[in-house]
Amino acid sequence: MRRLLCMLAIALLAGCASRREPSVVLTGLPDPEYIEHFEMPAVEVDTTDEPARLVASIPPRYPWLPVDGISPRWRYLVIHHTATDFGSMRDIHQWHLDKGWESGCGYHFVIGNGTNSGDGQVEPGPRWWNQATGAHTRLTEEMAQRRGIDSGHYNEYGIGIALVGNFAIDRPSKAQLDALVDLILALMQECHIPLARVVGHGEVDETTCPGDNFSMWNLRTRLRNAQ
Q1: Which in 31, 139, 197, 206 has the greatest CB count within 10 A?
Q2: CB 166 within 8 A of CB 81
Q3: CATH fold for domain 76-226
Q4: What is the pTM (predicted TM-score) of this model?
Q5: Low-confidence ranges of the chain (pLDDT < 70)
Q6: Distance (Å, whole) CA 119 – CA 177
């Protein structure tokens, strides 16, 4: 019996061995080819115009900022009314040209009342874009002597802002006043002009401009509260 079991075990082992696949040895293949390490050539990229393109895509802080910047000479903001019922920068520019003023509109900014321009629309003029001397506040010789300044002092150093309207009769619109406050605050910041130098035309010259219905006190209060 023991002999029979041994014979069966030998036969089983032989059967398992016969089903095992023979090892395959491949010959005649080429040796592996190794590629030496090499540096990728640097790609030269012309970026000389990148900064300009990026700057051009970013809107300026304010749309009325001159391309060449703001002159450091500005010391005052002088507020006016046009003393007309209607108007725009284009209208006033033509009126002043017709008067013989070579540079046209004497103000640097005009704020519309909804007639020939939008209500509260801020329009910069040629004198602002060119950072040129204004033609909005020329003192009489007597007034200039009393103040100890040249008669063109406020034209030379003052930014003239005119609201369309006759404020001896009417009142400025809410949109005009809101736009004026925003513009003044921005100019005070950009030109480093203190609140004490935000003046009405009639505060520095012998005139009722910007009209009895325009309160410089209310304007300064709003500016002070907004700072």
Answers
A1: 139
A2: yes
A3: Lysozyme-like (3.40.80)
A4: 0.74
A5: 1-60
A6: 10
